[in-house]
């Protein structure tokens, strides 16, 4: 075999979104792009803020000698200081540049964190449904993912997390607003989780990290707020990106923020900076670092995503689908009318609708709809969703 058996197995396990992409290409070729309704990819379709283009033009015309060269592996000091001030305000914890590392997106940041903290065989607890790539990021660095069920409304279940904790537990990884459910964990849930981890850390004589993946933090509805894990738990790490906030997914820019109260935080930061280098990222893109520092406080129009959510949920609920309204992000995790979510997803394809089975997110019996698409696509797809459900039920 030309590739490793492990990679081959990983390809098979992570194939659902890829399969939907391939199926979409086939349907478009057969029916035309205007007749295919692709809700499979979480690729933000909104343009970046207008100021992005102005600042980008200024930065690319700057011919200062060495401006595109190497810098500290953690990133430009002035950029880190700007972001530290922003994080301090948002997370209600005092950070300095020494607590920030610029990364190649949240995916790069999570790999850096896992590489830094994990010993072979240590465990990372992840509530499910979950973003499937987490399992690969953890496995990349010798860890083992431990999945725990959330409640029926996708809120955190502290009892399930408590049962999963043991001496091998190195971290708990959460994602709020959540992909694929759109759930925002409440202040009470975060406080309860922090208390649980404090007790467990004291019992085993070392900290269990709480890692929060937050690329959708600013995309929330009904004045919902995302609680600060840095405020509630000392041994906490935030990883995020500008992929969704500024619609810069392809630019691969984000950062890691470490709680200053974290045990041995200086050593942890040294480890993170080294792993940023030796994993091959070396440093986050220089141009994008300068750009996002100047765009702090800017973001895409969240009200557009809310309008799409409301249009989609009203139409699907009227058609007879069941789901919990998303509180953030741009995903709807809809209950399949049959336990076999894969079968129903294939049924939807007969109506040229592409979604991703919940099985791919550790949530069988559901399917994910990514509504980062135009209102026109949603409006034209809704009758197809209705027809598909009616025909399924006979």
Fold and architecture overview:
This protein has helices at 5-13, 15-31, 50-60, 77-91, 105-117, 133-140, 158-164, 187-204, 229-232, 265-278, 286-294, 302-319, 341-349, 375-393, and strands at 37-38, 100-103, 123-128, 144-149, 169-175, 209-213, 236-241, 254-258, 322-323, 331-335, 353-354, 356-357, 366-370. It is an alpha/beta fold and 394 residues long. The protein has two domains: 5-48 and 301-393, Aspartate Aminotransferase, domain 1 (Alpha-Beta Complex), CATH 3.90.1150.10; 70-294, Aspartate Aminotransferase, domain 2. It has a seven-stranded mixed sheet with strand order 2-8-7-6-5-3-4, sandwiched between helices. A hairpin with a 7-residue loop joins strand 9 and strand 10 (331-335). Helix 5 runs parallel beside helix 6. It starts with a helix and ends with a helix. The mean pLDDT is 94.
Keywords:
394 residues; alpha/beta; Aspartate Aminotransferase, domain 1; Aspartate Aminotransferase, domain 2; 2 domains; seven-stranded mixed β-sheet; globular
Give the distance, in angstroms, between the N- and C-terminal Cα atoms.
Answer: 46 Å
Rg = 21 Å
Mean pLDDT: 94
What kind of assembly state do the chains in view correspond to?
A: single chain
The CATH homologous superfamily of the largest domain: Type I PLP-dependent aspartate aminotransferase-like (Major domain)
Domain count, please report it: 2
Q: Please state the overall shape, judged from the principal axes of the Cα atoms.
A: globular
Q: What is the CATH architecture term of the largest domain? A: 3-Layer(aba) Sandwich
CATH class division of the largest domain: Alpha Beta
Q: Percent of residues in helical segments?
A: 40-55%
Helix/strand class:
alpha/beta
Main sheet: strand order: 2-8-7-6-5-3-4
Count of individual helical segments:
14
